[in-house]
Every structure is written in C-alpha cells, then in structure tokens.
C-alpha cells in the first residue's frame, strides 16, 4: 500500500492517466481507502480542469514545475491541517 506522500509524487501522472495499470491500481486502491487523498484528488482534479478550461490547446500538457511546486505546497499544507 503506497503512502500518501508517494501518491502525491505520482499524482500529476495519475491525473493524466500516464501510469502503468499496476501503478494506477495501487493509487486507486489507496485513494479509495484514504479519505484525505480522496478529497485531495477530487479538489486537485477540479483545479486542473479549471486551469485547462483557459488553455487554447485541446490536449493537456504536463504540469509545469512551478505548478508542481504549488501543488506540493498545497498538499503538504492539506495533510498538515489534517494531522496527516
Ligand atoms: Zn492517503
């Protein structure tokens, strides 16, 4: 069972469905059983969809490093707020 931190490390790839089926299964098993991760993935997905709505391109690109850093900070704050 992956840790929450490992989930975050692969989260952007997970959201882009850019992982092996095995990794996807492991992440989905974790987030379906870990309420903070369920909520975080849901809110992350919403923010990414909001961002992409303003993109002129149809195919989503990878997250840029700055966005990744912001997401990591948000994730750390989110987990700290929940005592995770
Ligand atoms: Zn978790």
Description:
By secondary structure, the protein is mainly alpha-helical. It has one domain. It is 70% helix and 0% strand. The protein has 4 helices and no strands. The chain has helices at 4-15, 21-31, 35-53, 65-81. The radius of gyration is 13 Å and the shape is globular. The structure holds zinc ion. Residues 4, 7, 30, 34, 36-37 line the site of zinc ion (ZN).
Keywords, please?
about 80 residues, globular, binds zinc ion, mainly alpha
Percent strand? under 5%
**Heterogens:** zinc ion
Which regions are unreliable across 5 or more consecutive residues at pLDDT < 50?
A: none
Number of structurally distinct domains: 1
Give the SSE string: HHHH
Summarize the structure.
This protein has helices at residues 4-15, 21-31, 35-53, 65-81. The protein is mainly α and 84 residues long.
Produce the secondary structure layout.
Elements: H1 4-15, H2 21-31, H3 35-53, H4 65-81
Helix pairs in contact: 1-2
């Amino acid at each position: 069972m992956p840790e929450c931190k490992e989930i975050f490390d692969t989260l952007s790839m997970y959201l882009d469905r850019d992982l092996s089926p095995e990794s996807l299964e492991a992440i989905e098993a974790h987030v379906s059983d870990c309420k903070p991760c369920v909520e975080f993935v849901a809110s992350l997905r919403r923010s990414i969809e909001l961002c992409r709505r303003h993109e002129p391109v149809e195919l989503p690109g990878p997250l840029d490093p700055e966005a990744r850093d912001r997401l990591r900070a948000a994730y750390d704050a989110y987990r700290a707020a929940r005592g995770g």
